[in-house]
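Board notes (copied after class):
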Amino acid sequence: MRVLVVDDDAELLELVERALVRDDHEVRTAESAEQALEILEQDRADLIVLDLGLPGASGEDLCRTLRQRGPSPAILVLTAQSAVSSRVRCLDSGADDYLAKPFAVAELRARVRAVGRRAAVPRPQLVVSGDVRLDFANRRAQVAGDEAPITAREWAILEVLASERGRVVGRGELLDRLWNQSNGAASASLEVLIGRIRRKLGSEMVRTVRGKGYAWNDG
């Protein structure tokens, strides 16, 4: 997998690069959001390991810029900010996962593998169901022609369910693919996000299969 590591700490860059190269990843590094964008203009990346506290444009700014451009690499955020509100903001700005600093290298390697597996799953490009139109490539949602504001985490849930149309996605599987964990906090967050999706797109868009999980409802 091609990985771009973005951090202004030279020692951390070297540490992460060595760890990921040992896992046979092809690794490039950047010390700012601007340098990262220059690299991405010339070459693709499958995954970006991204520090939030960068000089100039922040990691959150880079997340938003990449997501606004359309299909972009998966993003794993490294953050020293432990507040839940900070982590929610980074997920809503487009990150796929986060890891708090200081971190164990073994956990970083495991999360890179997990995010890489999720990113490798084919994503739907355009799904139309009734009066709901979901343009996954450009992250645009419309209901009866009106724009619906969908967050990055809500898009991630919709992508999993739309890519698995025709089967029930188990609750544990969904938690593992989106949060890489199945604890109580993640489970509660999933319920809240499913509720938001239903309010925005219609109550019948996501079907709950009691005791099993969730399924895409084509009507």
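Comment from the instructor: The chain has a mean pLDDT of 84. Residues 19 and 105 are 7 Å apart (CA to CA).
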